[in-house]
Amino acid sequence: MPDFAHELIHHPGLVAGVDEAGRGPLAGPVVAAAVILRQEDCPDGLNDSKKLTAKKRAVLEGEIKARALCWGLGIASVAEIDELNILWATMLAMTRAVEALEQECAHVLVDGNRCPNWRWPSTAVVEGDAKCLSIAAASILAKEERDRIMIAAAAEHPHYGWESNKGYGSAKHMAALRDHGPTPLHRRSFSPVAQLLLI
Fold it and tell me: Are the C-beta atoms of 115 and 122 separated by less than 8 Å?
């Protein structure tokens, strides 16, 4: 289970955890979150969002937003993903998330193996969402926000099953892509979508 060990290494000062959701899907934006937790008032049960049920994530999202010192969200659009590529669009979303924090942080812990080119001292933590409570909290906020975006988009584009697959390349999604073609929310720089555009 994640703990505060990584955060404590980088004190004194406020430490933010950052994570993203939506690097792999064929459609929709990439969403990042940044969270500065209160160590004395941390919600129980924080973990990698992928290891939690949807019901548990929803409960924890509310607790994180209510009890964290501060939190922020950052989004990179489909157009930015296609222009920059998914890696740099993810870095942009992470930067926007940290910029959205109401408090200035002294250090940022980033899930993954590299940090954005930004002004904050930072450390990349591989599998950080399973190791660091701040990153785990960020993973929950990012996933919940992106899931809401894709569920709303599913109402406008009902053929693709986004309410369940959230834009990932499921069998239903791929069949709908072949039958109906890409929407404005599809990432044209991603191979399965680009190949269909060539047909």
Answer: yes
